[in-house]
Amino acid sequence: MNELPQQLVNGLLLGSMYGLVALGYTMVYGIVQLINFAHGEIFMTGAFGALTVYVYILPDGTSMLIALPLMLIGAMIISTTVAVGAERFAYRPLRGGPRLAPLITAIGLSLALQQAVWAWYPEAKSARTFPSIPGGPFEIGTVTIQTGDVFVLCAAPLSMAILGYFVMRTRTGRGMQATAQDPDTAKLMGVNTDRIIVVAFALGAIFAAVGGVAYGLKYGQIDFRMGFILGLKAFTAAVLGGIGNIYGAMLGGLVLGIAEALSTAYISDIPGMQQFGSQSWANVWAFVLLILVLLFRPQGLLGERVADRA
Amino acid sequence: MTALLEVEDLKVAYGKIQAVKGISFKVEAGEVVTLIGTNGAGKTTTLRTLSGLLKPVGGQIKFNGKSLKKIPAHEIVSHGLAHSPEGRHIFPRMTIEDNLRLGAFLRNDKAGIDKDIQRSYDLFPILGERRKQAAGTLSGGEQQMLAMGRALMSQPKLLMLDEPSMGLSPIMMQKIMATIAELKAQGTTILLVEQNAQAALSLADHGHVMEVGNIVLSGSGHDLLHDESVRKAYLGVD
């Protein structure tokens, strides 16, 4: 059992990445009640944006210390462009229409973005190598942390803090809260809700871009399908934490990540369960957890019951 | 001499259904004007059109001499028109104080905002006592107070109140009406939509009776209160 701290840290690292991507699902849902199924692809295009900066813009052999910030900026620019473009040209024209229309559009957009990267990004038909941060793994007691994971370990809490400050303390953030709770009344207060929606998409994309870079650093390679399963997991995390709640999204991500790590580590130790502890079964356990939580707390861990309007 | 608000031949439709069929009325600065009538008469539709949430299909809205027809909803409040909507629509998961601050969303004078928040607490002491409480936990009457306080936070030239007495206990209703009288005494211009015709007409300088999208009767509050047909139809007096 002395590998427990290691497994918890593994879960925390994985969960931080889920949480970063989950923020985008939860913000967009909170503001426009749309499940943006293309958000996984926004995460994916962010990773490719970072790769583009490293491979095609920076000179060979640039130190990662200089390259990483530039890659992050590249990732954010690409993700945000894709997300804001999707909002403007795919979702906004459908606003006010039946709720299914934007949902189907999101699924279509998700496939289109995957195919676009597959078809047009150089050599993207198979996985492409992502640069790594040099340096050996860090040992803290019995816990080993890979160099690539240090990034997400710093980026996730920092992102959360910045987002929390933005939402609670800035005027645009308060406008976001108002729009999420009551869009028409927000307009009466002078909140430009169309702009708030764009901001929600853009912010979600920025954190997805951070997640995309984290993914590349963690696994050492990226491919055009990487957004599918990870997007699904992040969406699960958002629902688990209570969709619409930004802190819930991060918490849901962490819970999900830790549950996965523990399932791969310990389920095969249970007599008669040997075959259920593999990595591919981790996905199953993640969704079992989701179902269990929703059975007892349909609104998610930090979600609020929607019945407080007198 | 032009009135603060001039509505002329206003027509509003939901698809093919005409909800407001060409109404005209005025609100002079310092006046309280009321629209009364039953459910579905088009009163709320009229207010929602004035604040830009609905687009008219015809007619004119002039506020302070400027046409409001092409101005998007989120810019209306900056012209001096505040709307306390039907059903109150406070932001339930925000504190009372944050609700009030949202009423001042477009203002930049921090000191003035703090002063006006204090003014809301003076007007409604219960709000001050619970300033850090989530607004969704308030009673209906308290939420109504908050909605009114929030609308006042934009320092409006015209305050539009939609059914402030709806669903309230008689005591709470009296309190709200007393507050409206107090605001009137302070010189606030108010456009009041009410189903409680008795209370609204007692307060109002002018009243308009709406029926299925039309204004069928207009007059001073006092005259309408004593009008035979109004008494029969809206005051339940034979």
TrEMBL record, chain A:
Membrane topology category: Multi-pass membrane protein
Transmembrane stretches, start-end: 12-35, 42-59, 65-86, 98-121, 150-168, 196-217, 237-259, 280-296
CDD domains referenced in this protein's UniProt entry, alphabetically: TM_PBP1_LivH_like
Primary site of residence: membrane
Record keywords, A-Z: Amino-acid transport, Cell inner membrane, Cell membrane, Membrane, Transmembrane, Transmembrane helix, Transport
Family indicated by similarity: Belongs to the binding-protein-dependent transport system permease family. LivHM subfamily.
Protein name (record): Branched-chain amino acid ABC transporter permease
Species of the source: Streptomyces pratens
